[in-house]
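Q: Given only this backbone (323 positions), what sequence would you predict?
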């Protein structure tokens, strides 16, 4: 039995920070409103000449250093993004080139805020099927480029950033004590398209478009669907909420995250929160949060980590990982 073990992680956030106070000078909002409804205090914004692949590269290099892996060791790059550098080729291939990788394969995955979990599931399947030994999974976004900066319902929510994990095939016993990815569960329901989408694209408008969201409806679906996905993950591994050491959720709204922690009976200290400083970085939010908690020593070998995310599609999922 093989498992996909995470052997390194890395993160990158653009230098420029935009506070809620700065936003309040652009649209009719306030720091107090944004904090009380979302938990967000600030977000990072990519420089004009910084693309999604540049952010991804920095996170990837940090993950490679952490894992002690060189570009020659990587068989596959799976990059989750909704904000690719170009319509094609895949942003993952740009990262591959910037890493001077001359072998292996690289492609993008588009599952919006659930993108990291989709990429992780693909990597896990490649590794456990024996089609790859070492896989780099990246979540990287420049949402600042697809926001309508006049729409206060959406522009306050998002930020730019990138996170990456390095996975390697390892032996396991097939039980939940194994270190590595224990499970991934993915879902989508395309009928819910209109709740959260971008009103542009190469085939429809030939423009990049802007994020549009029915926030309250997405919130309602998030609570129901994330709860189901988490129950599914625990059941599949014969585990209960009491076994969880850390909740590393997608950082969309602190109220959604708090609600999930309460349902699971987790103490606030068991939840990794970055939304206050990063805002919603879509596919990058989980690896950014994961990396922070690993770096500061909260997550230790043997700990059980629960990850969950929902986003446009709607697309959602969960994963259990033993560190
Ligand atoms: N500042 C001040 N007032 C505002 C702002 C703002 N930035 N935005 C909206 N308002 C107003 C509205 O106009 C509305 O006023 P009205 O009652 O006079 O019409 C009032 O505040 C309440 O608006 P709601 O949209 O109902 O506010 P809500 O409490 O639902 O919070 C929010 C909005 C934060 C967007 C919330 O609904 C949410 O977080 N939803 C889920 C988001 C999510 O999980 N997305 C998934 C991932 S994202 C992805 O995949 C790309």
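A: Predicted residues:
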């Amino acid at each position: 039995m093989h498992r996909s073990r995470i052997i390194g992680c890395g993160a990158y956030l653009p230098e420029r920070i935009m506070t809620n106070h700065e936003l309040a000078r652009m649209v009719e909002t306030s720091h107090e409103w944004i904090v009380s409804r979302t938990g967000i205090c600030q977000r990072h914004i990519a420089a004009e000449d910084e693309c999604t692949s540049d952010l991804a590269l920095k996170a990837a290099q940090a993950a490679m250093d952490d894992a002690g892996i060189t570009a020659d060791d990587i068989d596959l790059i799976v990059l989750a993004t909704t904000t690719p550098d170009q319509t094609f080729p895949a942003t993952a291939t740009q990262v591959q080139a910037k890493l001077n990788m001359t072998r292996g394969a690289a492609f993008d995955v588009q599952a919006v805020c659930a993108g990291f979990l989709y990429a992780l599931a693909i990597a896990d399947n490649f590794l456990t099927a024996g089609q790859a030994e070492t896989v780099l999974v990246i979540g990287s976004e420049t949402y600042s480029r697809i926001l309508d900066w006049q729409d206060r319902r959406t522009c306050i929510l998002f930020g730019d950033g990138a996170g990456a994990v390095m996975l390697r095939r390892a032996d396991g016993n097939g039980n939940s004590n194994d270190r590595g990815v224990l499970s991934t569960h993915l879902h989508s329901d395309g009928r819910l398209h209109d709740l959260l989408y971008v009103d542009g694209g190469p085939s429809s408008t030939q423009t990049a478009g802007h994020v549009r969201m029915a926030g309250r409806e997405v919130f309602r679906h998030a609570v129901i669907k994330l709860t189901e996905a988490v129950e599914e993950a625990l059941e599949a591994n014969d585990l209960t909420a009491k076994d969880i050491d850390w909740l590393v959720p997608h950082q969309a709204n602190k109220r959604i995250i708090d609600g999930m922690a309460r349902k699971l009976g987790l103490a606030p200290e068991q939840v990794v929160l970055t939304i206050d400083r990063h805002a919603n970085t879509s596919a990058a939010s989980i690896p950014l949060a994961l990396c922070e908690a690993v770096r500061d020593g909260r997550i230790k070998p043997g700990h059980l980590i629960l990850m969950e995310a929902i986003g446009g599609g709607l697309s959602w999922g969960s994963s259990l990982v033993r560190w």
